[in-house]
User: Fold these one by one.
Assistant:
Number 1:
Amino acid sequence: MAAHLLRRELPEIRITESHPKALLWLLHVARIKRPVVEICIGHLVDFIESESPRLSDHERDAALGAVAALAMINKRSGWRDLYREEKNAFTPVSPVEYWMPVEIAT
């Protein structure tokens, strides 16, 4: 709904979808020995600055959405718009982007 309202007011705005839990794995923050449920803001210091030692899962996921949006704006190295590669994706608020890290070094 927010994307629909934004698009109506600002037709040229760029919007990226994010999948925060997948981002945690692709960024190598989540691991076998550190599942997503154990990840707090302190584990994200390479991506996010926060004065709060603990954020809710929703706040953490919103911050990860902001990381994806910044990657979209900066065309961050190692990230790409997966939506451009999908031919049959359903998008109720087109155009959208889906920036994800795909070439993260281990």
Note: The longest strand covers residues 79-81.
Number 2:
Amino acid sequence: MPFNRGLALLGQSKLASDAWVIVAWGQVLTTAKMINQVGAAKVTPARFTKAIRAFKGPQALGAPSLQCGKYPTEPAACNDQTQFFQYEGKGVFKRLTGWLRPPAGFTPSG
């Protein structure tokens, strides 16, 4: 997996099982994608903001689709999907489910 190889290149293989590290990795890859989409020489805060707001996924190492503002009480929640894994040790995870969504009619309570 490229994630594991990247961590190994950085001498940080021990971080492979840290869920926050893979989240950050995915965010960096998504940010790089947006910069490439705009054009590195043309990136401005306004152009980057426009590109990231139009981005609907899939997010690298994340949700297959994004929809910011779906829940009015949670405007920054852009994803209501998850999948579950079982850690089997030594950096190995077994996927237990595909992408799951909340039940029909679900709205978060604030």
Note: The chain is about 35% helix and 10% strand.
Number 3:
Amino acid sequence: MDNSLAPSWLVKPSDINELDASIWPDNLVRGEDGHCQIGGVAVGDLVQQFGTPLYVVDKKDFFTRANKLIQAFDAAAKRFGTKSKIYYAGKALLTTEIVRWVDQLGMSVDTSSNGEMAVALAGGISPERIGLHGNNKSHSEIGRAVTSGIGVVVIDSEIEVERIASAAGAQDRIQPVRLRVNSGVHAHTHEYLATAREDQKFGIAISDVAKVVEMIRSHKHLQFMGLHSHIGSQIFAVEGFVEAARRLVRLHAELLTGGEIPELNLGGGFGVAYTPADKPMPIELVAETIISAVAAECEALEIPIPVLAFEPGRYIAGPSGITIYNVGTTKDVLVGDQGEVRKYVSIDGGMSDNARPALYKADYSVALVSRGSDLNASLVRVVGKHCESGDIVVRDGYLPEDISPNDLVAVATTGAYCYSLASNYNYLPRAAMVAVADGKAELLVRAETEQDLLARDAKVSK
């Protein structure tokens, strides 16, 4: 009998050992003995070597998803007589090795801070293939971008025009820039993930675009590359992208009277599946729909189609990653008047390694990966070890009835915005990250230690 506490979207699995291919990385498999491998490496071996919690990235899955996206946008752009340019959104997941992967894939990388620029540069990618975003870029960040030869800086306010022009002029460099536009399109997503509404911090209002572009063009040390739009994140409906694109193309056409504009950046935000209820559109359809809408608008306005840039991050990194945890305690809790049971499964991580459920009430999927089970599926809530009742990693999921201490569980689709949002709440050291492929594990980021945590305490006893 189904548990009435389960949400309507959560379907009880007929086989608790099955790994849904729409959620888990391509190279996560369960062997006949019930034990799981990812990238040809046994989960148990990973834990023995690197501990838990542990971020694991399926390298081949990362490359497969990136190539699929690149090919989709390249093919659609070619059909309409233009080219596409892909910037990997570094805020989703960034290490020096990830930067090297991005470089190998032929993508550029988008950054939004001094730290992210430092990682991108340390990863060895050409500075010309780095972009810098941000609504409050410091003089230090702007100076570093200009000095390093960063390919493009996205202007987010009028004040930044003068700041960037001043930095470029002081070095007698010409700095390419874009202008972020608040298109007013409301993405169908969480309130905090929607970034193109009128009453929020990002971008320039459409009514102010002409004035700000004129300011940019008045500076000989600035090169105006085009407009930029980003309507939000984790978006499943393509209509918002299409409407934002149409609005920007119309602006683009008006601005062409003042000079050449080589590119148009339409951002990212393409949704991925965290649970079986999530049904993202095929990326080929997303690319075709957006670029065909741009082409139709350009044709109607009798202007050439510019080079089209996009900034995916989650689409590539999210489903490629999992997080492995060790189960510490389990607890059956009677809920409501009917006495339904919800099993609480406590793990050795929590909101410090995955803040998204607490921030956005995001849903995730969980599986037992250290063994199989012949028992029925039990409704569970996977919770962390932090001193917060909201420290929930998987709000609603199914694990075997015999889930027990020292079992290993994995949470799917944690490749994006988990490591990058990690904290030391309750003084938990941040977890290690490894990449797996062809039966080998490669350490990308080592786990923090208590010594790391104490190293910044200026008053620690020597």
Note: The radius of gyration is 24 Å.
